[in-house]
Amino acid sequence: MRYRRFGRTKWEVSEMGYGMWGMAGWSNSNDDESLRSLQVAVDLGCNFFDTAYAYGNGRSENLLGQIVRANPEKRLYTATKIPPKTLQWPAAPESKLMDTYPPDYVEEYVHRSLENARLDQFDVMQFHTWNDDWMRDDRWFYKLDDLRGQKLIQAIGISINRWEPWNGVRAVRSGQIDSVQVIYNIFDQNPEDDLFPACREMDVAVIARVPFDEGTLTGTLTKDSKWPEGDWRNTYFVPDNLIPSVERADEIKKLLEAWNREHETRITMPELALRFILGNDDVSTIIPGMRKTSHVESNVEASDAGPLPRELQEKMKGFRWVRKPTPWSQ
Q1: How do residues 139-154 score in pLDDT, each as one tens digit?
Q2: Among residues 37, 79, 231, 296, which is most buried (max CB within 10 A)?
């Protein structure tokens, strides 16, 4: 495992972090299997774990707390998120800060998350949704800064809405946040335009989420893929999304197969997706979802392999896909 500096905090975090949504919000998750996978990740050098209150109403936070307590000799960095009071994902353009994250509500959920995890402190506390217009009202910052003064949190972050990387640049440039979490992958390269340069200038850490585009960039989905009833992916992968996503992923798969033949390599689709992100020095850590030990092992191997060869990295830039939020994109 390799490590990168987490912005101005100067923490050295594993470039392969651990996204914990799948442990509570997706079907077929099992707590015992999740804890085994988390421990394997720790053993292989992973030290950054990202969860949220909304992931099972604290269930995922509880698992994180268990793994932290099981490894007292290791420095594990913990990040969670406050859910919007409106329960609206993503934040609507017309949403107001006082309706979504009023100060008393923010404080209540920081304490709830700490109780769920049975921890004294989280390293990073993030808003689970964001609207840059909220920068006009600084009560959100003063409340989190007060909680930081109480040593309940160490750093402040935001999680940027899907396909809106521009909708966080103002927060970054304010100097009031320490990290941004944003979708960044072979398809979604837009953060490179404005967000990443701002983070570089302000020394704000970048947490890259959804490296596999919710599954299409693993190369395992088809145009007929279905999930059990109640699984979030049924509402996300509507035909308007699933079909073009699979078609584009299939084009990448063909290119990769040709590359492997020509260069006598065995790069897999998931490895390709992760190593593409590792090719960008602006990224502090990637947080793929890992519910099984096999996922952990293969993703850590991608870190060991490092960024893609320059020529292959450039080829992936041709798959940039500019998408706009829709009612199903959440």
Answers
A1: 999 999 999 999 999 9
A2: 79
What is the residue extent of each domain of the chain? Answer: 3-214+269-309
**Omega into 90 within 30° of 0, i.e. cis?**
yes
Residue 153 φ then ψ, to 5°: -140, 160
pLDDT at 83 over 80: yes
Give the homologous superfamily in CATH for domain 3-214+269-309: NADP-dependent oxidoreductase domain (3.20.20.100)
Q: Which two tokens stand for residue 241?
A: 């999304």
The DSSP letter of residue 289 is: B
Query: What separation in angstroms does the CA of 293 have from each of 1, 37, 298?
Result: 16, 5, 9
DSSP letter string, 61-116? HHHHHHHHHT-TTS--EEEEEEPPTT--SS--TT--HHHHS-HHHHHHHHHHHHHH
pTM of the model: 0.96
